[in-house]
Amino acid sequence: MSYLADFAQAFIGVFQEGGKTFVGLLTGIIPTLVTLMTAVNALIMFIGEERVNNWGMSMGKYAILRYTVMPIVAVFFLTNPMAYTFGRFLPEKYKPAFYDAAVSFVHPITGLFPHANPAELFVYLGIAQGVEKLGLPIGGLAIRYFLVGVIVIFIRGIVTEKLTLRLAKQQGIEL
Amino acid sequence: MYRAVIIKKGSNGWGGPLIIKPTEKKNKIASITGGGIHPIAQRIAELTGGVAIDGFRNPVPEDEICCVVIDCGGTARAGVYPKKRIPTINLTPVGPTGPLADYIVEDIYVSGVRENDISLADESENNISNIPIISGESKKETFTPTPEIKHNGSPKGNILERFGRAMGGIVGTLYQAGRKTIDQLLRNIIPFMAFVATIIGIINATGIGKALANLIAPLANNIVGLLIISIIAGFPLLSPLLGPGAVIAQVIGVLLGVEIGKGTIPPQFALPALFAIDPQVGCDFIPVGLSLGEAKPETNSIGVSAILISRLFTGPIAVLIAYLFSFGLY
């Protein structure tokens, strides 16, 4: 009998531990998240999709903008997955590289701007939670995640662009 | 004779498209926007040949209303007219909300509408209309009720009205942003938190945690291990399988977070780890993402290969850059 009771205690203990974590997430993350996301969502509505599209059309010309500012603006304003519609402002040969840059930014942006990809916050939050548990601040981690993200999407954009052009040439397809 | 217009939803809007066509009896476009005739109501009246009425000051009998133009933030008015099955054009981009949400359906309600969302219905699309266009145009000369109404209440309204409308717009937008946030919270964030909390509970309260720590720590507490993780995750055959919903990346992020919290992985590896677990991001989504960008099929097929190969190199490069940037962080 006591064996069964011990088992029940251990069984329920697993979920008590989970429940503690859940409350921790609710009270620790959600309050700030709600107000931050509301403010940014309102800002985006004030600016409006048309204006953002006009910016998008003007940014595709130079590689440095095409794989940095353009995907950042797209992900920030249109969020995942509508950000990829910005690809329509580019010639065919740049579209894969732009997609690659934009999609690679949907996690680095969440440290600072969680509204951009609310369904995938825990890539960053999972790790950041651990750092927070040690009593360390996570502001620096969020900013560096963002900055390194920008560098990475630029490199990724350039590499994918070159690969796209090379593959098209090999297969004799004009893009 | 009246003409039909198609009214589509605006960029953040919901519902529709509605086809609006006044009849002899139902020819009033009621603008219930807090005084004055809203330019949108005016526009609909001009295109259809109907009469725009300031429904706020001059209540219109319901059986004469062809459609209503409202600017409701989603509490009462948004549902009142759809409930009566009167076509409703809401200028505020809200979907089915409020106590009457059940009545707000796509065939009677459209929201977020702006001037360029309104267009004359093409005769071929419009099965209601069988009236030749010529007669509609000739009648238009005699049928000009709108300017006279403009005199009693200009569409822009006085300063107070304009101020009130601007304030209402700002408050409405903020309210709408709040609603969107809570919607995302309930739909995406809290369910994932429930999932994550359960996993963490199981890891922490059972022996699995120790086993996992022994497995993960040697890979994640040094740069070589992180590079190996990134190469595996960026491998072209694996990356599309690891991608969907970033669920795997999120679970691994949580696992690594637990180990960082326990001290088995030093915090300075947090930044490179974020990139090590993510070389596959979006690899499952390439064809969809490219078609959202209106890419042609041949771009699509080349794009998939180009991106998958690119990740093989840029995945580990990202980890190295992140490693360099992690110095001095913790």
Question: Could you characterize the architecture of this molecule?
Answer:
The complex is a heterodimer of chains A (175) and B (330). Chain A is an all-alpha fold and 175 residues long. Chain A has helices at residues 2-28, 30-47, 49-58, 63-66, 69-78, 95-103, 122-133, 139-170. In chain A, α3 runs antiparallel to α5 (69-78), α5 crosses α6 (95-103) and α6 packs antiparallel against α8 (139-170). The model of chain A has no long low-confidence stretch (mean pLDDT 92). Chain B is α/β, with parallel strands linked by helices and 330 residues long. Chain B has twelve helices and eight strands. Chain B has helices at 39-48, 77-83, 133-142, 146-152, 159-205, 208-220, 223-233, 239-242, 247-262, 270-276, 286-292, 297-325, and strands spanning 5-7, 18-20, 28-32, 51-54, 65-70, 88-90, 109-111, 118-120. A five-stranded parallel sheet of chain B has the order 4-3-5-6-7, sandwiched between helices. A three-stranded antiparallel sheet of chain B has the order 2-1-8, with helices on one face. In chain B, α7 (223-233) runs parallel beside α10. Chain B is elongated. The model of chain B is unreliable at 124-153 (pLDDT under 50). The interface between A and B is large, with 87 and 88 residues.
Work out the radius of gyration of chain A: 21 Å
Query: Secondary-structure element order of chain B, as H and E?
Result: EEEHEEHEEEHHHHHHHHHH
Rg of chain B (C-alpha, Å): 29 Å
Query: Rough shape of chain A?
Result: elongated
List the secondary-structure elements of chain A in sequence, H or E: HHHHHHHH
Low-confidence stretches of chain A at least 5 residues in length (pLDDT < 50)?
Answer: none
Averaging pLDDT over every residue of chain B, what do you get?
A: 82
- Got a strand count of chain A? 0
Number of helices of chain B: 12
Number of helices of chain A: 8
Read across the widest sheet of chain B, the strand sequence of neighbours is 4-3-5-6-7
Report the average pLDDT across residues of chain A. 92
Helix content of chain B: 40-55%
Measured distance between first and last alpha carbons of chain A: 74 Å
Helix proportion of chain A: 55-70%
Number of strands of chain B: 8
| Multimerization status | heterodimer
> In this structure, how is the largest beta sheet of chain A organized?
none
Ends distance of chain B: 75 Å
For the report, how would you describe the main beta sheet of chain B?
5 strands, parallel
The backbone outline of chain B, from C-alpha atoms, is elongated
